[in-house]
Amino acid sequence: MNIRVFFKSIKFAFRAKKRVIPFMMVYAILFIVVSDGLLTADWLWYILMALIASMFYAIIISQNRRRDMSVFKCIGWSNSDVMLLVIGEVLLVTIASFLVMLQISFEIMGIIAYFEGAGGLFDPVYDFIVIPAGSLFTTFFFVLGMQIPGLFIAQRRAMSVPPMKALREE
After folding, report:
1. Is residue 63 part of a domain?
2. Is residue 83 within 8 Å of residue 7, measured between CB atoms?
3. Residues 165/66, Cβ–Cβ less than 8 Å
4. What average pLDDT does this structure show over 110-123?
5. Predicted structure pTM score
6. What domain range includes position 136?
7. 166: in domain
């Protein structure tokens, strides 16, 4: 694994803010919903929802990065280095959205602890946002694992990009 290319892929992902930031919000909501869903009897539907969202994001990345991938292949990057671009962005979005959701959960717990005597005004928010730690970390690893099928699809699409596509005018 080429660590230098992996860190470049994370820097490269920050340039696509129009795509990365909305998916970070989607993943943060996905973490909350799937974590709550794992505590119910219908947990299989929530895992399926995580699989679909994860695969969808990997496909969107491979579609939007086709031209970039063909340029990198044109200048001599190997297929594995090109694939690290997709993996870096997926890992960046997953880990960053998990940390954002964890921070929001901690802040909600702090606000609720501060206003404990407010007569249960924040109880609905507490029930929705604050998730037990076991369920939360289980969800993180589920979502991270559910990205593997999407990455296989993205890899197949990324490797099929011809290098000469970068040289054509569009």
Report:
1. yes
2. no
3. yes
4. 68
5. 0.76
6. 3-13+20-160
7. no
